[in-house]
Amino acid sequence: MSNKNEINILIANDPLPLSFVMSKKWPSDTKVNFIKTEYTNYKPEPIKLKNIDILIGTDFTLEMSKYANRLKAIFIPAAGYERINPDALPDGTIVANAYHHEAPISEWVMMVASALDHSLIKSHLTFANGSWSQWPARLGAYSELYNKTFGIIGLGNIGMRVAKLALAYDMRVIGTGRTKRNSIKNQSEIEYHYGKKGIDEVMTRSDFVLISTPLNKMTQDLINKRELKLMKKTAYIINVARGQIINEESLYYALKNRTIAGAAIDTWYIYPEGKKDEPRPSRFPFWELDNLIMTPHHSGATIGTMKRRYTTVAENIDRFVTKKPILNVIENISKN
């Protein structure tokens, strides 16, 4: 370990090999000591936090706090911060994230919305197997996104980007959030509601419902059996936020019983913890359903997203060293 006058940065959430030169990835302009470590389920060995000034990672636990004798900042190279335990943070610890994934996620959202509406996957699979069952001359006419209603729960960076694209498709957009706002971007084009009533408006009236709100105590199981029953039988739900925002069992049975038309799910309930384990993503067999597009949490994992995040984290390292204000500080979790 380097001396106490150097800035030690532990990198605990990175798929690159230990031999990779970290300064090439995190282009900081100031001299720091990068320390890369193995991790399990995104968590490094707690003892690795000893004499660390900055943690680049997504997790922080009470066990890790026992060794965090110098920790002053956690820079999350992602958007979500629900795996940081605020009660474990040493006093004075700043937590900041680096999202930059709204462009690819919004592209993914519109892609799956169109694929669901056009029965794209079923059409491909049946036709590739020699069947003309999806031919309009036998099946009938298909649907279209034009003039339909896109509902968005959570009008943050992702939600607003999706709204922009949905409007370009000539769709109506309804959005909802936790608080009343007197003005939002595109106010004349986005119908905005808030609170529980806002969720009910979105669930009842939308042809597509996007979940793009952070996971926290208030949003755990935000969408449950009651909310799913409000949806049209012809409507689809899309989740790019966190699996636990939609109740797992309620979602499965809404799809299985076709209470709703279908879904596209990118964020799940169970994830791998090591490098080779292959767990199913849920306690329920979603993979047996034919009205679901399911992907392994990859909607925002593009080269562009990674580069933008690296740049933001590197800039925050420089800001930390030069004592300038940190970007994207998460106010409700940082320990001032």
Helix count? 10
The percent range for strand residues is 15-25%
CATH architecture of the largest domain: 3-Layer(aba) Sandwich
Based on helices, strands and strand pairing, what is the structural class?
alpha/beta
Rg over C-alpha atoms, rounded to the nearest angstrom = 22 Å
CATH topology of the largest domain: Rossmann fold
Mean pLDDT: 91
CATH superfamily of the largest domain: NAD(P)-binding Rossmann-like Domain
- Uncertain residue segments: none
N-to-C series of helices and strands: EHEEEEHEEHHHEHEEHEHEHEEH
Largest sheet: 7 strands, parallel
Strand order of the largest sheet: 10-9-8-11-12-13-14
Assembly type of the chains comes to: single chain
CATH class descriptor name of the largest domain: Alpha Beta
The first-to-last residue Cα distance is 27 Å
Q: Helicity, in percent?
A: 25-40%
Total strand segments: 14
Number of domains: 2
The shape is elongated
In words, what does this structure look like?
With 336 residues, the protein is of the alpha/beta class. The protein folds into two domains: 8-100 and 303-321, NAD(P)-binding Rossmann-like Domain (Rossmann fold, 3-Layer(aba) Sandwich); 102-294, Rossmann fold. It has ten helices and 14 strands. The strands form three sheets. Strands 10-9-8-11-12-13-14 form a seven-stranded parallel beta sheet, with helices on both faces. Strands 2-1-5-6-7 form a five-stranded parallel beta sheet, covered by helices on one side. Strands 3-4 form a two-stranded antiparallel sheet. α3 crosses α6.
Give short descriptive properties of this protein.
336 residues, alpha/beta, Rossmann fold, 2 domains, seven-stranded parallel β-sheet, five-stranded parallel β-sheet, 14 strands, 28% helix, 15% strand
